[in-house]
Design a protein that fits this description.
By secondary structure, the protein is α/β, with parallel strands linked by helices. It has 8 helices and 5 strands; from the N terminus they run E-H-E-H-H-H-E-H-E-H-H-E-H. It binds shikimate-3-phosphate.
């Protein structure tokens, strides 16, 4: 069985929904960022500060490659930048890719006051989200198999929608 990978912009709910989806499907849940933090023994923001984004992207690719190579099917939450890196897209081709969307307004609300995401540091949050989202959205759309809006729907409903969509692809 293919791994189920949740993708989408920061704040779209990949971890929360992924955990619940895995629970419902009785599959293991794994968060790529959390695995990196545990392996490196430091938060993502510190990895960016100390070693730079390029170094983080290498860790991310290595970790994702390792996780998708595992035989046991799992639900994987991918960081928002992972599908944007071209060298990660070949791994996504062998997975069921679920793209979680949300409006700029919703994302800005969810991400306001966030200190964990170096990509959003400094400047006007709403503008940053708008610009980056416009660049990334076409890629998320292209690499995904299923799209589900998370803007104002309860987690259990979103999970049910994902399960239905996955079932109809079988
Ligand atoms: C990033 C998203 C983050 C994390 C890192 C970079 C991005 O993950 O991987 O801060 O480039 O969008 P989340 O999408 O889980 O916040």
């Amino acid at each position: 069985m293919k791994h189920i990978v949740l993708i989408g912009f920061m704040g779209c709910g990949k971890t929360r929904i992924g955990r619940e989806l895995a629970h419902k499907l009785k599959l293991p849940f794994v968060d790529v960022d959390k695995e990196i933090v545990e392996k490196e023994g430091m938060p993502i923001a510190d990895i960016f500060d100390d070693k730079g984004e390029a170094f983080f992207r290498e860790l991310e690719t290595e970790m994702f490659k390792t996780l998708v190579a595992k035989k046991e099917q799992s639900v994987i939450s991918a960081g928002g930048g992972l599908p944007i890196q071209e060298n990660n897209q070949k791994y996504l081709e062998n997975c069921e890719v679920v793209y979680l969307t949300a409006t700029v307004d919703v994302l800005a609300k969810r991400l306001s006051g966030d200190k964990k995401r170096p990509i959003l540091k400094g400047g006007n949050l709403r503008e940053k989200i708008t610009t980056l989202k416009a660049k990334r959205d076409p890629i998320y759309e292209r690499v995904s198999d299923i799209t589900v809006d998370t803007s104002d729907v309860a987690v259990d409903k979103i999970v049910a929608q994902i399960i239905d969509a996955l079932d109809s692809r079988r």
